Amino acid sequence: MGDRSWWGWGRTDCALSDDECVALGARLPGLSSTPLPIPRIEQLVVPQARITPPAALAPRFSAAPADRVGHTYGKAYRDVVRALHGDLACAPDLVAYPQTDAEIVDVLDWAASRRVAVIPYGGGSSVVGGVEYRPASGGADHCGVISLDLTAMDRVLEVDRVSRAARIQAGARGPVLEDQLRPHGLTLRFYPQSYEFSTLGGWLATRAGGHYATLYTHIDDLVESMRVVTPVGTGESWRLPASGAGPSPDRLFLGSEGILGVITEAWMRLQERPRHKASATVAFEDMAAAMQAVRAVAQSGRHPANCRLLDPGEALLSGVARNGEAMLVVGVESADCPVEGQLAELLTIAREHGGARCGDGDGADRSAEAWRTSFLRAPYLRDGLARMGAIVETFETACTWDRALDLYEAVRASVGAAVEEITGSPGIINCRFTHVYPDGPALYFTVIAVGRRGQELVMWDDVKIAAMEILARHHATVTHHHGVGRDHRPGYDRQRPEPFAMALRAAKAALDPHGVLNPGVLVD
Amino acid sequence: MGDRSWWGWGRTDCALSDDECVALGARLPGLSSTPLPIPRIEQLVVPQARITPPAALAPRFSAAPADRVGHTYGKAYRDVVRALHGDLACAPDLVAYPQTDAEIVDVLDWAASRRVAVIPYGGGSSVVGGVEYRPASGGADHCGVISLDLTAMDRVLEVDRVSRAARIQAGARGPVLEDQLRPHGLTLRFYPQSYEFSTLGGWLATRAGGHYATLYTHIDDLVESMRVVTPVGTGESWRLPASGAGPSPDRLFLGSEGILGVITEAWMRLQERPRHKASATVAFEDMAAAMQAVRAVAQSGRHPANCRLLDPGEALLSGVARNGEAMLVVGVESADCPVEGQLAELLTIAREHGGARCGDGDGADRSAEAWRTSFLRAPYLRDGLARMGAIVETFETACTWDRALDLYEAVRASVGAAVEEITGSPGIINCRFTHVYPDGPALYFTVIAVGRRGQELVMWDDVKIAAMEILARHHATVTHHHGVGRDHRPGYDRQRPEPFAMALRAAKAALDPHGVLNPGVLVD
């Protein structure tokens, strides 16, 4: 993928041009009139690599600046700004591209013997500092850092058509694995926003959330078994549809964010490709009414594939609504039977709670389509706005329904106040519900504000502290699906029950006794 | 519950009379003609208690023989036979009935200071040796044993009607918690076969499986948060509908079988009480055809509440079929809409795979009813047969669909051969599918054979070894929902990935540094 952006989201050919950045920036008064330039890699100052790979492994390693620079950061707003400013002090010394488990074992052994940090890297789409090295955060510093890029291990190795499952290597990005499943008529049907630029292993390691809004939302529930290479040995759970034998082994590694081992493959549960689809958009006067409706849908025992509630600001920004309505985008799918009846039932529930369906047929589809396009385009727009000096980032959470409206309002008020205090002008704080469960929704907030060039990161960090504070005060999770990484450590440490923290630290010490794996993440 | 049986399943007034035992035993040629007598507690030799409780805690402890005898075993066939033979060598020295978390903390502190083993005890319905002390299995022996009975902590403490969740103490048995939820119009809707005689805490600690056959089958998925008292501190996870923050803390304690801490309460997800129900029974010529149909149902994206496949032997034994058919009992439920359409769709799938619906209306319901009655009555019949000298026990597993027919046939063949070799005559080996998933079924086997009095346990242990061997050879789980306890340790150790075993041992050492909690279970 030579056209991956090293500094921003996705593909270079999808990034906004300078002119587009200027046009976009003009919509937010107070921004700069010229975009931050994108440095050329050859202009960048990349620190001297401190380690050289052992001869036997040398063919799998790269010390090329393009590789090291491209693996320095994830894809958060903080990462984009730092990259644009050419801040590469913590670039990994080497990037490894193993092709087999045995090579990973060799890399881990070598790293342990030299006290070299190893950061497992899938698609590099972390937005929480999950794939970067931070000297201060991992206790005693390491002698070097390896970014362990898994994307050379991207094959579907076996397909079990009868049980509808496949053994897939962890380095497969979304389109890469779907291309291999398609001839079998099957799909993993897991579509995080990062789908094109993230890997199965990354999804598993971070408990990623997919596009589908109900039922099986997290990758966790799609796992039949996993293979994990740890510094003290390799383990593979049995392929089981369900088991009650002790605590689930897979659930310890799901969400372990690379600190306990490297996930190298997994048997994943698959589905038939859906052939029947229908969707509609429903308008509500305000968020309170919309939330009642969405709760009723979530508690109805029906399981819409899509159930996304946009608050008035989000609906306006994404072009789905024009008049301050909250908008619900609801969709249903099936592989084997028509879904119009199911959609009608869901629309009845929405109507009973004051929802008005928008347009008919084509009209509704256009709204849904407008939203989807905007969803996939959003990260590129973010990068364009960042280049114009905007502070533009998201954070997400989940809580139970009894607290959801309070939380929504409290976050908008507190984060809004923080933005105004920190930046000197009011910002945009929008929200959508990305997933809904019978007992509560996942809330996804977008913040857009005018930063002072050179101060953007400090300003955003202060806004984020305010956001994390209000989430914690409501006992809303520090992350529903972005993960913890390094950025969410304070909130995570607060949220995590102490006995579990002790157990996790003990597990880390047992499996990674030299502390080489992704230091600073989840535990110290 | 003064009428709980101390030696056998459930309530004393539901146990078979001597005459009923004789009549039942007459149906299996070769059994004894007289039932083993039930010893009176006052006749039993109970070892002297080796410890006395500290004065401050004394009111919560009992050293009464009835308490100690009633807490010596779970309710497996092995337990019933040992109890009937008056084998009480390993009776706990004391039974504690704490009423608060603080009292549990005190008990654990005291136990740690004296190297006294503490066995958390809910309803005592373990069928895998989960609640008994075994001197050899826990490394260095303990100076005494406490059975920690949680049933004094059985209140529903809070109900959140909006999010449909409740905070429930772990010692609440099924009917006790449902009685408290009913006024709120809500239900946990979790019905293991042991429902009347097992507790929420026991379900959580063993990852119990409920009656419902698809979707949310294990208690795991109904948990919003948990509170756990460990020897090094108490932890409580936040109430969250979903989270992606690190490995799930709750999932480490779910299935931990009392070795990491004592679960004292949990916020559980509830449902509206179902008002619409429909069920039907479908006959298939053989298991191969029936399995195809059940797989199609499980992979259809529909989620029947009940989907239980009885093999020809099981269908015959439970009175659901008479002519060697495999029988599928399928049921649907909803709180808010009619379910006939859903049932019709499921029956269409069954018919496409060669199924013939049995009778109409009442006829079908009678079959379903016959099966349900037999299901709840089964443990009492087992006890009656055991008193007549029969070997009568169950074991259960799960595997993916690609292996399911092979596994079914291999278990019947191997275990059948083992029974014949060990007992000298052929036994009955029946199977039902208790739960079905898109990627595989849970298989539940019943073994009935003629034992030699006094040799029953040795004989059964040998049969069980053969069963575990064939499960392991097929990589089928050692347990789908009964748990590991002490009886399944060999199979569990074989199945569990070694890195996870290392992590679990490390977690155990961190949370229970004196090794007092349920020694011998899951880890040494």
Automatic annotation (TrEMBL), chains A, B:
Family label: Belongs to the FAD-binding oxidoreductase/transferase type 4 family.
InterPro entries, per the entry: Alkyl-DHAP_Synthase, FAD-bd_oxidored_4_C, FAD-bd_PCMH, FAD-bd_PCMH-like_sf, FAD-bd_PCMH_sub2, FAD-linked_Oxase-like_C, Oxid_FAD_bind_N
Domain FAD-binding PCMH-type as annotated: residue spans: 88-273
Protein name (Swiss-Prot/TrEMBL): FAD-binding oxidoreductase
Pfam families registered for this protein in UniProt: FAD-oxidase_C (PF02913), FAD_binding_4 (PF01565)
Keywords attached to this entry: FAD, Flavoprotein
Natural source organism: Micromonospora coerulea
